[in-house]
Amino acid sequence: MSLPAQDALIRIGGPRWEAALHRNGQVDRMRLLSDEGWIDVDFRKGPFAGFTWVGEWNGEKHVIGVTLDAQKTDEAVFAGGSGALECSLRYHSIGGQLAVSAAVTNTGRLPLQPQSLGLMTGIDSYMEKFPDWNDKFFPTLLRCERTHFWGYCMRPEGALIALACPQPVASWSLQYNVGYMEGELEWGGHRVETFTIDFLHAGPLPERHPQTQFQLLPGKTKEWTLRLIPLQRLDGLLPALAPVCAAPMLEIARTTLAKGESTRMIIHSDESVTARIQMPDGQRMTVRPEAAGGNKYELLIQAGEARGHIRIDVENSSGKQSEAIVSVRPDWLWFMDKARAAALVYPPRATSHCESWYGLYTLYLSQQYFPDRELLERTEQIMESIYPLMFDMESHEPLLVKHRIQNVSSMVGILVDRYEATGDEAVLQRASDLADWLIRHAQHPDGSYRAGKTHYTSVIYPAKSLMELILAEQALAADDPLWRERLVRHTASVRRAMDELAAADGDIDTEGELTYEDGMISCSALQLGLFALMQPENERAVYREAALKLVDGHECLANLLIPDGRQRGATRRFWESQYDVAIQPNMLNSPHAWTSWRTYSTWYAYLLTGKLYYLEQTMNALGSCVQMVDMNLGALRWAFVPDPYVRARQISKQMMVSDRRRAQEGHHHTLKYPSQEFVIGEQYIGMISDWHETNLQDNDVHEHFKCLAEVALGKAYAAYDEHGSLRTWNCRAEEKDGVLHVYPTEPKVERVHLNVGEKQVAVHFETGDVAANLQEMVWVHADGRMMRDLYMI
What we know:
The protein is α+β, with helices and mostly antiparallel strands. Among the domains are: 10-234, Beta-galactosidase, Chain A, domain 5 (Distorted Sandwich), CATH 2.70.98.40; 249-329, Sandwich (Immunoglobulin-like); 394-557; 715-787, no CATH class. The protein is 25% helix and 33% strand. Strands 7-8-9-10-17-14-13-12 form an eight-stranded antiparallel beta sheet, covered by helices on one side. Helix 2 (332-345) packs across helix 3, helix 7 packs antiparallel against helix 8 and helix 9 (518-533) runs parallel beside helix 12 (595-609). The chain starts with 9 loop residues before the first strand and ends in a 6-residue tail after the last strand. This is Alpha-L-rhamnosidase six-hairpin glycosidase domain-containing protein. InterPro entries: 6-hairpin_glycosidase_sf. It comes from Paenibacillus residui.
């Protein structure tokens, strides 16, 4: 079926693509043929239409117009210029697939050194409403290597467009929307308009980027060819791009290693390759990866004793280079210990936003692993000083911004952890009373939790916080009818909320600007997943399938292929810096604290299905996220920014609290205060709440350590994959004489999850050995107990 005709449009195409173009070279409609059928690709209209030559120089932004110059059945060429620049844009076929070639010539006498010059793609990434956002391609990964460029755009339903350019590309940028105005001041929005590939760009740029693509000399021409390849499966992307980029593409299953662990890198390459490796201790080596057949090579990467990053540069015989980073971590408890210390350096404060006191999670959870009376007393003093400024001590009603019901539910979760740390039943009573307030005031007749009319079930997981309360209430309910009554009431409320969430099938709202929002989707998936785990096996299906559909759709917002242990598994969030650390404009915060919401969801997905695909994602993401603690210095950072180049401003004047008897409210726009400009590019951003006392929310970083405690502390995993290979996390395992022996390698492991089928096993805990004959997935506890599930009620 061909694209329908439309007046004045240029219709061209090849065996695997069709396009209708305007006479200025911009795309009106496009279809790409994958192996499983045609895929329609939406393009923007108006100022974000493309493909369009755009640039910035001499302090001004430029759009370089082109007009039709030549046309064939499968090709259209457009040409134009601006000043001394002559630009062309060509749509054509290579191997039957779409290619977009762009060339620029400097006809002047002076070098052109632009701030940027490249193509705005115009691919529609504007995810505005359900169900339309399911058909939008989000720019999931854009990556410049020294010699080439690659990446992909992905839709929630799974289709993707692989992007490849065999020539070096200086940089890239996302066009973030404006969310709302405060007078003449812009607040960053929650949507991406489209994205731009910057062929030339001023520095500084990340070291991995080409460093010579900053100018065009007089009389010189440069040309780039971008290939767009439709695919239906993510696992086919790297093999597909290797011949297109004529470069090695690096596939790493495990991007974070403990000391002594190893991972195997698969290198997709049509040519032989050499790898240069730099270890965290500075040791360097050059190796030749082993040929593995089918244009593949394998390289074993072994972690040594030094923590930090292993940098691997792979080069093929033609000189094309690709980089990977594998992280080597200390034990998980080290991160928890450092995060606890940081939670006192960057203390929880009474504000209108729970993010400002999220450090209380880490302070209470750490007590279970590092009992310390003095630190617990300091934590209790902080809690008792800030709680009355935010909640009425009698009615348990929030005293400010009552519509932010996530403040109430988050305090419920913190109080549960406080109860676990102190054993004080009155603390759990307070959590129960807060939960009752939330149910009375925020649960809608349809079962959802709402702020006014807005669906809030998936804003910082209020139902998960109630589930944490329910799990704590169980032990008391067995002997106390009052606690039993509370348990029944809270469980019924959560069930109503999960039934509504499952039935909504993604048609839900979120706080702020509606979009296919990172947290809205991951919080929905994690809550449904946890609730499924709390049900008998025969009652799980509806919740399990709803959770899996959401977590799989969320892959379009997750870094699942990037060969970088700092970013693997991170979600593509981009509007938090303005609130958390007073930096504008928008930029990716990836990982940000809310990445860990996805980590919960993939962990629950693994426990529900036994599929190692989800456990691998979980542990990779966790490894990236905990590196918010600097592995060399032990200092806490807020988030990682993968954008290559952002000219940003941050409030530079210390913001102090004048009245400590009141909670702080509201946000602080960067440009309303003294600020400083600097360039941010592929780097960590530091915490600020040690010197800013007002309502800034960098404490949300502690979501990572709450997640760490639930997923990895005290736990280990062993499983056979689909190839029969034994995979382990936090332990090592070997089979001897028909018995699988498992040896935990992390301190204080008290339970091991075994997914090894029918097998005789022996788990060697620090406290003694436990032997068992297994028939199914099971948790083996150090005290000899065996449990199919952790969360059953």
